[in-house]
Amino acid sequence: MSSLQKTARDVVIVEGLRTPFAKSGTKLKTVHAAQLGQTALKELVAKLNLDVNVVDEVIIGNTGSPADAVNISRVVALNSGFPIQTSAVTVHRNCASALESITSGFERIKSGTMDAVVAGGTESMSQMPLLMPTAITGIIERLGSAKTGGARAKALWDWFKADLSQIKEMVTTPPLAKTKYKPVIAIAEGLTDPFVGINMGMTAEVIAKEFGVSRREQDEYALKSHQKAVAAKAKLAEEIVPVYLAPDYKEVITEDIGPRDNQTMEALQKLKPFFDKTTGPITDGAAVLLMMTREKAEALGYKPLARIRGYGFAGLEPERMGMGPAYSTPLALKRSDLQMKDIGLVELNEAFAAQVLANQKAFDSDEFGKKIGLPGKIGELRSDILNVNGGAIALGHPVGATGTRIVITLMKEMRRRNVEFGLATLCIGGGQGGSIIIENEG
Description:
Elements: E1 11-18, E2 22-23, H1 33-48, E3 57-61, H2 72-79, E4 87-91, H3 97-110, E5 116-124, H4 134-145, H5 149-161, H6 200-211, H7 215-231, H8 233-236, E6 243-244, E7 252-253, H9 265-269, E8 283-293, H10 294-299, E9 306-315, H11 324-336, E10 345-348, H12 353-363, H13 366-371, H14 392-395, H15 402-417, E11 421-428, E12 432-440
Parallel strand pairs: 3-4, 3-5, 10-11
Antiparallel strand pairs: 1-8, 1-9, 2-8, 5-8, 6-7, 9-12, 11-12
Helix pairs in contact: 1-2, 3-15, 4-5, 6-12
């Protein structure tokens, strides 16, 4: 294990908070993604009694890009009371968008360009933009430009008789596809890979077969995720800020809507399709954190929770995207001058139970390690330190926010357990992996 001396330009995380995560179409369905981000950020500012003028930039991850808040980071920043002089940028790396916000902030601070950055992510998957095929949008354009009643009536009639099943054309196998796999379900929100033409559930099936992960193993893992999340409600409450619902703001959401305290193996085994309940559900939520130089934190009287030691992103075959953590983690370990045996806690986003279990097998495989250019295995990804408070199968996966959520959950649990080093990692749609290693500042 390598112990680095503390320096003034160390990049530290002062604090992080998030909204409750709620399944798409439930309690947070009417809350705009910008409002979710604003709720978390305003609470973070209040908790730290932060002078917003000391923040150089706000970086927010988002994948849905609301039409009325395309650079959603700027909207969140201004609505949270940050001055107009504070720059803001939205970043997008699919499932790791909110991890990208942290690593982007890390680079700005480490280079000396900035001293303090707010990083995070927000997503309302309930309000994802509805995509329409060109045949339908053409009719809408004709309706909008019609100058006579007859022309409008003709456009409306064409709309009425249009075959709306054309929407499926948007997600059928594209020209770039090079494999035999076909989409099982038409998912218009971008959950189908543009290179291999299969949805994310099918990528999980690819690696389940490759690593011999059974249905029962997946069900058992999913059950444990729910059980751990239910048991950890009190701890998770420490990172959650309430969301008051419009229009009268009398109803308040204070905990995640996802973990099921009545989940059983019998119920899981009856479910179809294969990945129905062994995947992180489509979810609404936001998470933010404050990061700065050690020197700036000390000057402002803050005691940081964690220091960022290193990170890594790596690419792999899109149809095997779930294996991303096994590709990116060796990079993060090398850049942090650490080994897997040094890691005391791990947050690995549960895109699918099959994906987590396959990564556990890959991490502990000499054959896999040599395949990716290592002398041997990455190191054991122990179950007793993995997602100890449950994961996305129970809590949910708001795509643009998860990368920050797992870092917040990780660093707070590291503090509780007095763990020195922790790893947060995700697979990324399109065939990438992202990993970040943090060190306890307690």
